[in-house]
Amino acid sequence: MGGEIQALQSVSLQFEPGNFYTIIGPSGSGKTTLLHIIAAILKPSSGDVHVGDVELGKLNEGRRDAWRRQNCGLIFQDFRLIEELGPLANVLVPSWFTSMVTKPAMRSRAEALLSHFKVPSRSGPVAALSRGQQQRIAMARALLLEPEIILADEPTASVDKANAELIIEEMHNLARQRKTVICVSHDERVARRADHVFEIEDGRLVRDRDEAAPRVAAEGVSS
Ligand SMILES: Nc1ncnc2c1ncn2[C@@H]1O[C@H](COP(=O)(O)OP(=O)(O)OP(=O)(O)O)[C@@H](O)[C@H]1O
Ligand SMILES: [Mg+2]
């Protein structure tokens, strides 16, 4: 069909809990597309994503959304914060879907996460904060519900060196806590700290820097 863009050709990857994975590749190589397929935000035109016994492609949209909310913490490349709300309210957004009221424990956890990522919890709307602060709010929000799978798209792109190290260290520690951490990045510092590095180019897996890394499971061709 004319005008169709094939963002990913044939990518086959397997991810295991307890590991910190980095996916690197040039701009436009398909990294965000791949991350969104893993998160079941995008449906591949062929292939599928298996998570444990679940085949995400077999779930309808509502169930995919529920699966993502229950299992994934997402840090989007463009943050996707609610600009009119402050940091604390943004970090608490995932709790909207778990109960009607924000429990005090959830609020304390949100405050602790913001403090860990060095963002004042009581400031005005996040739109007025720096991009680096917004990026760390997005990270705190992704971790609120202690997800088993953390999917981060360029999480160090807007922060300074010290905060990049804080974020990289956090991803490393999450993997040590048996989480599955998958991070798309241009940042060599992220790749150096990862347990496994996959490299994609023009929608293809060109290099698996750790050949011992397990292969095959999330397969997809996205157009
Ligand atoms: N919604 C869309 N409509 C049309 N083309 C798209 C769309 N999303 C992605 N693409 C194309 O698919 C390819 C891969 O895009 P993707 O955003 O996954 O790249 P990326 O590796 O994340 O790049 P960057 O490092 O700049 O974030 C690009 O050629 C892009 O133009
Ligand atoms: Mg991208």
UniProtKB/TrEMBL annotation:
Any GO CC annotation of this UniProt entry: plasma membrane
A GO MF term: transmembrane transporter activity
Annotated Gene3D superfamilies: P-loop containing nucleotide triphosphate hydrolases
One Pfam entry name: ABC_tran
Keywords: ATP-binding, Nucleotide-binding, Translocase, Transport
SUPFAM superfamilies: P-loop containing nucleoside triphosphate hydrolases
InterPro entries tied to this protein: AAA+_ATPase, ABC_transporter-like_ATP-bd, ABC_transpr_LolD-like, MacB-like_ATP-bd, P-loop_NTPase
Residue stretches making up the ABC transporter domain: 1-220
Family: Belongs to the ABC transporter superfamily.
Protein name per Swiss-Prot or TrEMBL: ABC transporter ATP-binding protein
Species per Swiss-Prot/TrEMBL record: Paradevosia shaoguanensis
